[in-house]
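Subject: for your reference before the review

Hello V.,

The reviewers asked for a structural picture of the protein, and I figured it would be easier to keep everything in one thread rather than splitting it across files. Below is the amino acid sequence we used in the manuscript, unchanged from the supplementary table.
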Amino acid sequence: MTPEDFIQVYEKKSASHRFDEVDPLIADDAVFWFNDGSFSGKDSIRKAFDRTSTFEIQDERHWLDNLRWLVKAEGFAVCIFSYHWTGVVEGVFKNLGDGRGTCVLRAFESGWKISHEHLSREPILLS
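And here is what came back from the structure prediction:
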């Protein structure tokens, strides 16, 4: 699988809001940085992921665009992108966030995995 294919799979599985779907795509020692904190290791990342999934959002959609590969090498790859998040909260369609991201991928025997993700956006209010 190419790094480009991997990112498409990750984007799709992330949209499921089930951490078990993305768990195999994340390195055990991964570090994720978000506006609300830094999360090191899968247990910490799972808690951050699950916290976001507790909001009741209907017709949720999130997607990446402006994907640009800064590095693609034998054992690692780095990309930057824009992301967008929309959905219906309490009956009202909302833009839940736009931002930018960086993903560092590392090659393992089992395939590509995310070693680092950094997402930044303006804070949002769901209520």
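For the response letter, the relevant points are probably these. The chain has a mean pLDDT of 88. The CA atoms of residues 37 and 48 lie 9 Å apart.

Happy to draft the paragraph if you're swamped.

O.
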